[in-house]
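Hey L., structure's done. Input below.
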Amino acid sequence: MHSSKEVIQLIKRLREDKKMTIETLAKKVGVAKSTLSRYENEQRDFPINDIGKYAEALDVSIEYLLGIQADATEKQRLIISKNLNNLLQKSNKKKIDVFKDLEKYGVSETTVYSWFNGKKYPRIDKVQLLADYFGVLKSDITEDKSIAPEENNNTFTFNNQNDYPYIPATVSAGIPINIDGLDSFETISIPDELLGKYAGDEDLFFMRVNGDSMNKIIPHKSLIGVKPIKIKGLRSGDIVVYSDGYNYSVKRFYRDGDRLIFRPESYDASFTDYTVSEPYEDLRLHGKVVIYIVNLD
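Output:
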């Protein structure tokens, strides 16, 4: 599997092969031209969580950018294709119907057909979109239902795990909500294999998300790992937990001059930016979301 540096260098090569300018690719993925330039010149770490946007813009699969084994990738694409076509038949719909219904979410006709034909693997947010459209679970789209549970005897044992503070309250991913007793917490055990470089980090704490304003990335009830950080240490696009007068929320962070912008990423267009200006008297930044664990059903 490719490292983040290998991924961005592959993205750069693909961009150049397609004779695409930095400005054009930056617009397609929704970042500043200067930001993409810093990624390509390794002046800033490439955010691996955004890889799906680059894969779609460059018309390649996420697996290709990650360097995942081709055989496994092709098999997974065929599983999804089979499940989607079965759902299509059960719902008495045609592919063109799916495209027309999903077009408002920015999905192209070519992309929809590539999912059904097994040519492309849909990004995780698009898997959720398809699951919602057909009224099924994500697993009904991504898993091979022809294999009975008892036939799958493969197990994985986690070797090490650590306890972390767990705030027994949800963090709003919608309209900020009041959370009492944030200073009290329980503990939660998380395997080191899931946390990677953050395994054993003494500053890390966990909470759950409540709401849908970040559901393109972090669905309702997802578990998030938060690492304390100062505002000056944040980069535009980081996901943060913040409070403004004891109201806690999780959003994307952006800076515009002396204004701080906390932006949702939701399929629901009613969610809007939350903006504060200096001197930020009631604003408190609790940390940057460095990992999230999503429930598939």
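Confidence is low (pLDDT under 50) at residues 174-184. The CA atoms of residues 59 and 120 lie 9 Å apart.

-- N.
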